Every structure is written in C-alpha cells, then in structure tokens.
Amino acid sequence: MSDPIASSRRFAVPPDGHAAGFPLHRLSRQVLPALAIITVFWTLYAYWSNYNLDRFIDMLENYALGRRWALGYPKHPPLSQWTTAAWFSVLPTGDFAYRALTALNLATGLGLMAALARRFLDPAQQMAALAVSLAIPLMSFLAMTYNANSAMIPYWAGAALAYFGVIERRSMVAATALGLCIGLALLSKYYSAVLVLSLLAHSLFDREVRPLWRTGLPWIAMAVATAVFAPHAVWLGQNGFGPVTYAALEQGDRSLGGVVGSNLAFIASQFAYALPGLAPLALYRRRGDNLALFDFRSVLALDDRPLGRDWLFLTRGPPRATIVLSLAMASPVTTTWSMPAAMFWPVLLTLLLQREIANRRARTGMAFIISFAVVLLALSPVIQRALLREAGVNSAVPVRRMVAAAESAWAQAAGAPLDFVTGENFLAYGASFYAGGNPLAVKPAEVEGDDPIGNAFRRSGVLAMCRSEKCLSAEWLAANGFRMLPTIVVPGEPGAGGPASYPVHLWVKTPAP
How far apart (Å, rounded) are the C-alpha atoms in residues 206 and 211? Predict the structure, then answer.
C-alpha cells in the first residue's frame, strides 16, 4: 500500500527553490512602493473625481447596515458591512476615509497577486503585471466602489495563495488559511461558490494534485470554511434564506432571452475588460525587437505543472461555472461579478511579453504606474465636472446638503437627539452616514416586530426623508405617530445636470416622554 504522504512529497517545494516545477522568484523590491503609490492614488482619485460616494448607494448601504453588526442582511452576506463598520469604528466617518478603505482593499488583493505571481514571473515581470492591473477596468475604476463584488477581491487572492501552499508544502497552516479565505469569500458574496467549484475541480481532475485527497488537508480546509460560514448559514435558515433568494431569483430579467443575453454579455465582457491590459505591455516593445508579438509558449507551459494548471483553472473555471449555474437556475448574470476573477488575468497577459524584454526595460512598469497616477489625478477635477453634468442615477444629487438641511429642520422641530432615520433608502442611508450622531437607518418593515430595533424605534426620535411625498404610506406614518414638516428645497450643485433643485419631504416622530 502506498503512503499518501510520501506520494505527495513531489508537490513540496524542492531544495532548489522551485515551486512545483516553476522557479520561485524573489518578490520585486519595487512591489511594496508600487502598492503604496496605488493605494494613495486610488484614494485621491476616487475622492477628487466623484461628487458622491457612489451612485448606486452600495457604500452608504454598507455603512448603514453594518452599524447593526448582524449575522446577515436582506440582500447580501455580511462581511462587507462588517468590514465597513470595523473601519469606521477606528476612523472618523467621511468620504475620504471610505475611499481609503476601498483603495486598501484593492491593494491588498494586488499584493497577494504579486506573491502568487512569484511562481510564474520574475521581479521585472511582477512590476509589469501590476502595471497591467491598472489598465484592466475591473481591477481599477470599477473596483473603486466598495460593495459585495470588490469585497471578494482579497479573499479570492488569499484562497489561491493558500491553495498553492497546500500543493507546494502539504501545510496544515496553508489548508487552514485556505478554509478561512473560502469562508470569508462566501461571506462577502455567494458568487464565491464558483471559486470553490473551480478549486475543487482542479484538485479532483489534476492527476498530480488528486492524491492530496488521501491526506487530511482538503478536509481541514472544508471544516474551517464550514465553521466560518456556519453562523451566517444558521441566520439564513432562521430568516427564510432571503439573501439567497434575492441573489438567485430577484435580480435582472429572468426570461429566457434575458438570461441568455446576460450570459452572452458576460462572455464578451471577459475579453472587453481584459484587452486594455495589453496597453502597458505595448510600452515595453520597440521597433527592431525581432521577437514575436506575443510569447504564447510561456502561457502554454503553464499546462505542464500543477500550479500552472491551477492558474488556468482560476482564470477559466469561474466564468464557466458562472454560465452553467446561471443557465441551470434561469438567473441572469452581471458582468462586474468577474471582478475578483480578474485578479488572475494580469499574470496571463504578462506572460505574453518575452521575459528578456521585461528585464531589458525593467523600469517601464513603475514608470507606467507613476505616469498613470499623475495624469489621472491631474484630470480628476475635469472628470468630476463631467460626471456632474451627466448626472447619472444619484451621481449629482446633493445628498450631504439635503441631510444637513433635514437635520436642521429636525433640531428646530424636535429639539432632541435623532436616533433613527427612515424613508427613501438613498436619503436614509445618507443621513446615517452624514448626520451628526450617525442615526440608525431602518425600513418600515424592519420595525414592526417586538424586537430590540422595533422597541427602540417606537420609543426614540425618528426622522423620515423622501424625495417623493408618496414614498411612505400615510397610514404607516399616522400609526407610528409621525407628523409632517414643511417641505425643504435644496439647490443642486452649480454646473450639474439634472434638476436645478431637490425637494425633501420630512416627517418627524419625537421621542416618547
């Protein structure tokens, strides 16, 4: 009988420093300075180029819901809300600090990508991969909104790095880290199930990795992931699996045409989002290089080793699993779901560039990163004005001034602490973030029960805010003791598109004596 531990020793890092057949390169000395530049750049750019935090209110919602520290929330699993709440338990509430959290989240994923890339890329190529990541929209502009999609990025990258550690070193620590990252990825968004399926498929179908199932390592990873996710799973069962239903059945057009169309758009987006990543690589090339345009041999060589095949699984597996699950569940998909999977694209694209060219022009990567940052920071005021003129969704709504005016009206009408806000989600979540004392935001349906939130709501001061006078039921307002205040009108931002002014309808409920 063969010894499973002995049979898997060929996966361990050999004494010559090779990682499962690939040279384990040192991490470039420029990686940490580059990550610091990227973090500062995306913080400043997102802060200077946007009028509001985000037009789809995800960031405001994360903050408002996270203040309750629940095991689950109506639409998504809780990790992005928990992270936001933890961040603002240390830092003062404000747009700049929130932008810093988003940038740090992305930079953490990029740092883990660089650690992963050591198996395939030498130091000069690692810097090229970081430059490539800036040009991929899913790893740059679209990741500047902290929501359930971007929250997955560091945990997908962490899971991949831990999985490499399991293959290379047969390490219990790596298996534990793998389970932890998988559990946290699932707590970020249920879509992370496609990552789990991809890793599982690789471990079962790769002939050199499959023997690991005869050790305890996969079971350790599964046990840890289950333990991390279990409290939320219990909450799901107690709350009718509402977020799962929302994720699978309540988003988008579920007709046959809608599902098929969204999948075709999803497939096309994989190429559309990846192609801009070739632009930084073009800066490495010169006329007279006398080399092929692309070095496909390096990409094809990935198939010769288990870590390389795993990397290919990580790039091809999640999109394929997404399409299969979408068609099986008759549920449409969204192109931005690919955000955490895009973390694996820069390595593949960089492998298309010949190694000798990357090393011959080793300063190009850092030069591109610095130039990219300087140019976009210089353009950020222009970009903000353009976004204001466009006035898409909520991008030009003066939410901070609307909250300030409503808070002033509350102070005059009630003269008491403001504990809760309700009404239109965008304004209620905005008030929770921007108003002094950061009141809790609730929806009418959330305060009907005999629970701590409902009981506190009935005793406390509450302000209801809406842009439409009919956004709340008159019966509900009367039954809960609200009275209407005069409508306030807040002027729009000078130069912005959309309405010249915004009405805010207000109702107040003063605290019980």
Answer: 9
Length of the chain: 513
- Which residues are paired to 233 by β-bridges? none
> How far apart (Å, rounded) are the C-alpha atoms in residues 177 and 163?
9
Which among 24, 27, 23, 34 is positioned nearest to 363, based on CA atoms? 34
Residue pLDDT, tens place only, 75-105: 889 999 999 999 999 999 999 999 999 999 9
The residue type of 282 is A
Say how far apart CA 83 and CA 195 lie, in whole Å.
21
pLDDT tens per residue, range 92-147: 999 999 999 999 999 999 999 999 999 999 999 999 999 999 999 999 999 999 99
Q: Are 311 and 348 in contact (CB under 8 A)?
A: yes
- Indicate the helix (H) or strand (E) that contains 502: strand 501-509
Chain position carrying tokens 């991809």: 198
CB 463 within 8 A of CB 410: yes
Strand 440-441 relative to strand 420-423, pairing:
parallel
Please state, in angstroms and rounded to a whole number, the distance separating the CA atoms of residues 317 and 303.
14
CA distance 287 to 350: 19
Q: Which residues contact 16 (CB under 8 A, 6 or more apart)?
A: none
11 CB-side CA count, 13 A: 26
| CB atoms closer than 10 angstroms to residue 239 | 15
C-alpha–C-alpha distance, residues 273 and 367, integer Å: 23
The gap between the terminal CA atoms of the chain, to the nearest Å, is 79
Residue among 13, 30, 25 at smallest CA distance from 369: 30
**C-alpha span between 9 and 329 (Å, rounded):** 41
Burial of 274 (0-12, 13-18, 19+ CB in 10 A): buried
**Can you tell me whether residue 215 is helix, strand or coil?**
coil
Per-residue pLDDT of 183-215, as tens digits, reads 999 999 999 999 999 999 999 999 999 999 999
Q: Give CA separation, 242 vs 325, 328, 507, in Å.
A: 19, 20, 30
The residues facing 490 across adjacent strands are 502
